[in-house]
């Protein structure tokens, strides 16, 4: 049964507002203070050129930033710019972040059919030494195709990527490239027409999101065709593990066309069989995806804006002596496009599923595509009393906000401009 958005449980306090140089569309933290922001810029003149059949010109950049102090001050550290590509998505390779003090590996999806990877130097010895090391371009599609989103597979050397053609691909990435000095030409690897790349399924329109299942055997994807697809990738994984060329037939696919009323923009596995989904139809849904049978909606909530991205903040499982009263809950950060940001709780209690809004942040005046929780010193993203801090952005007004949730009142705000120069 569909629910309407209820009143919130926690207040929000704005700590800082920063005007960025370009339109932000993705961001991610790699420790408690450092984060990266990816930008997507379309030349205004080329919007008119598209009507005359001319190619659009996109540019972009990735900034490294740092949060300083309890007031949410932002320090700009470094930028890498792309003159002919925009950034659509970026993620750190999780395995590269597990060793304390190690340099994390960052991969970004570009509008020119490629992924670009870097090893980020945590500290620099001089002001001229770059933090962006070992730059490599991984060409996974023709340069006219956008890589709209990607995720690392449970095997950290494999990525799942969504393309603007509707294709969902798997690719074995070579992230062990030799070190490259700032003066050297970037390394480029073409994976097309090789055994290291495979198309796992095709959406009828643009593919917007892809993520591996928790066990890694399937790939879950969504697209502008309003479909939710589950594709088996065990054949590709077996071939990769054995070092053989992939020669098995087309993967088994399951397609749902009934649940979503518009494009499927994000999927997040809560368990092997329960998925959170987001859509342009403004709804967040908990969906049961059994191994046999059709997916079904367990609960859904209209958040007032397209649900673009999800980040799990915490999960809690209570197991009383009476197992029938078992309670499980997840707290999730939601980027809601033109409706701002939500913190929601998804709960299963006494066999009843529900979604409640815990907090709203609505200072953004344009599309909120990118938001992230700031990790605390103990690694937590959310505390039981509702205390947490966040960074969120909006696209057209190029705004970055730092804010917190909790019982405190007030809405102090400082405004600065980050020029990146």
Automatic annotation (TrEMBL):
Please give the name of this protein. WD40 repeat-like protein
Q: In which pathway does it act?
A: Protein modification
Please tell me one Gene Ontology term that the record gives under cellular component.
cytoplasm
One Gene Ontology term of the molecular function aspect: diphthine methylesterase activity
- Specify the taxonomic lineage: Eukaryota, Fungi, Dikarya, Ascomycota, Pezizomycotina
GO BP, sorted A to Z: protein histidyl modification to diphthamide
The record's keywords, sorted A to Z, are:
Repeat, WD repeat
Q: Output the InterPro entries linked to this UniProt entry.
A: Diphthine_MTase (IPR052415), WD40/YVTN_repeat-like_dom_sf (IPR015943), WD40_repeat_dom_sf (IPR036322)
Species assigned in the record: Eremomyces bilateralis CBS 781.70
């Amino acid at each position: 049964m569909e629910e309407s958005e209820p009143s919130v449980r926690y207040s929000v306090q704005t700590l800082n507002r920063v005007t960025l140089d370009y339109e932000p569309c993705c961001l991610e933290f790699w420790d408690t203070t450092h984060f990266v922001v990816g930008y997507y810029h379309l030349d205004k003149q080329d919007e008119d050129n598209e009507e005359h059949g001319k190619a659009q010109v996109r540019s972009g950049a990735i900034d490294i930033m740092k949060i300083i102090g309890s007031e949410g001050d932002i320090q700009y550290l470094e930028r890498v710019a792309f003159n002919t590509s925009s950034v659509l998505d970026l993620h750190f390779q999780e395995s590269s972040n597990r060793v304390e003090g190690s340099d994390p590996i960052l991969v970004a999806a570009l509008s020119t059919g490629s992924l670009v990877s870097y090893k980020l130097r945590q500290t620099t010895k001089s002001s001229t030494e770059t933090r962006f090391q070992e730059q490599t371009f991984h060409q996974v599609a023709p340069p006219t195709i956008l890589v709209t989103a990607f995720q690392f597979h449970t095997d950290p050397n494999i990525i799942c990527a969504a393309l603007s053609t509707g294709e969902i691909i798997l690719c074995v990435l070579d992230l062990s490239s030799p070190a490259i000095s700032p003066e050297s030409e970037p390394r480029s690897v073409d994976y097309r027409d090789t055994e290291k790349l495979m198309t796992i399924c095709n959406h009828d329109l643009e593919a917007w999101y892809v993520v591996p299942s928790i066990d890694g055997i399937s790939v879950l994807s969504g697209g502008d065709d309003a479909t939710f697809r589950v594709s088996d990738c065990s054949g590709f994984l077996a071939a990769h593990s054995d070092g053989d060329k992939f020669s098995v037939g087309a993967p088994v696919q399951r397609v749902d066309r009934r649940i979503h009323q518009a494009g499927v923009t994000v999927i997040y596995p809560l368990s092997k069989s329960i998925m959170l989904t987001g859509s342009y139809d403004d709804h967040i849904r908990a969906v049961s995806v059994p191994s046999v049978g059709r997916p079904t909606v367990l609960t859904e909530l209209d958040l007032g804006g397209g649900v673009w991205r999800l980040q799990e903040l915490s999960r809690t499982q209570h197991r009383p002596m009476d197992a029938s009263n078992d309670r499980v809950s997840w707290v999730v950060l939601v980027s809601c496009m033109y409706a701002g940001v939500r913190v929601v709780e998804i709960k299963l209690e006494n066999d009843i599923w529900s979604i409640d809004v815990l907090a709203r942040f609505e200072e953004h005046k344009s599309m909120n595509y990118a938001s992230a929780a700031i990790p605390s010193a103990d690694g937590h993203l959310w505390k039981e009393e509702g205390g947490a801090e966040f960074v969120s952005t909006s696209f057209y007004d190029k705004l970055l906000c730092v804010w917190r949730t909790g019982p405190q009142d007030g809405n102090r705000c400082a405004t600065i401009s980050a020029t990146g120069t």
